[in-house]
Amino acid sequence: MARLSLNPSAKEFVPPGKGFQESWQSPFHQKVTEASLADVFKDSGKIVDCRVCGDPNSAMRFAFIEFADERAVQQAIKLNGAKLGKYPIRVMPSKTAIVPVNTSFLPRTQKELECCARTVYVANIDKRVDREDVRQFFETLCGPVKKIRLLSDYNKVSSIAFVEFAGFDSARKALDCSGALLGMLPIRVTPSKAPVRDEY
């Protein structure tokens, strides 16, 4: 099984994945949906998941697409430079894997959908790290944090967190923090499909 890692020094901590990141910049693409984007890449191979990220009201957005096998990834990368509407897209191997989501956690309103675009899911957090440590880490490297939900299970060796940023650019910067040490463990950061809610 192929591995796609952000940090070569932390390969063993990056979840296995077969995907790529695709990004674009164009007012046209504000209306692109996950379904329509998946349709563009369907001939590359079987698509497992597709996630569009970033501010839905901004010209700068990006997406993650996961395929069933490595061959499909290589076919998809060949679409680098192809036009989506009037503008070319940039396709590259992904630095993160897409994490499955419980459908009951998905956004229920347009406001929650916009919050998701500013939220990241963080895994493999050292249990000695508290909420304020998480806030300080991400605010120092990425920008102001609006909400944090830090979750821990007695049976798990590490914690997870949902971190909502004040700005979309900060959330995108946070994705580049995969592999960075928070406490004594290298964290994994992926786009969140769930907003930060009090009732989790």
Describe this structure in words.
This protein is of the alpha+beta class and 200 residues long. The protein has 2 domains: 18-93, Alpha-Beta Plaits (2-Layer Sandwich), CATH 3.30.70; 103-191, RRM (RNA recognition motif) domain (Alpha-Beta Plaits), CATH 3.30.70. The protein has 5 helices and 12 strands. The strands form 4 sheets. Strands 2-3-1-6 form a 4-stranded antiparallel sheet, covered by helices on one side. A 4-stranded antiparallel sheet has the order 8-9-7-12, covered by helices on one side. Strands 4-5 form a two-stranded antiparallel ribbon. It comes from Coccomyxa subellipsoidea (strain C-169) (Green microalga).
Output the CATH homologous superfamily of the largest domain.
RRM (RNA recognition motif) domain
Number of helices, counting only DSSP H or I runs of 4 residues or more: 5
Output the CATH class name of the largest domain. Alpha Beta
* CATH architect. name of the largest domain: 2-Layer Sandwich
Mean pLDDT: 76
Question: Oligomerization state of this entry?
Answer: single chain
Number of strands: 12
Report, as a whole number of angstroms, the end-to-end distance.
Answer: 33 Å
Principal-axis shape equals globular
Task: Fill in the CATH topology of the largest domain.
Answer: Alpha-Beta Plaits
Secondary-structure element pattern, one letter each: EHEEHEEEHEHEEHEEE
Please report which band the strand proportion falls in: under 5%, 5-15%, 15-25%, 25-35%, 35-45% or over 45%: 25-35%
Radius of gyration: 17 Å
Domain RRM: 27-96, 118-194
Protein name: RRM domain-containing protein
InterPro entries: Nucleotide-bd_a/b_plait_sf, PAM2_motif, RBD_domain_sf, RRM_dom
GO molecular function: RNA binding
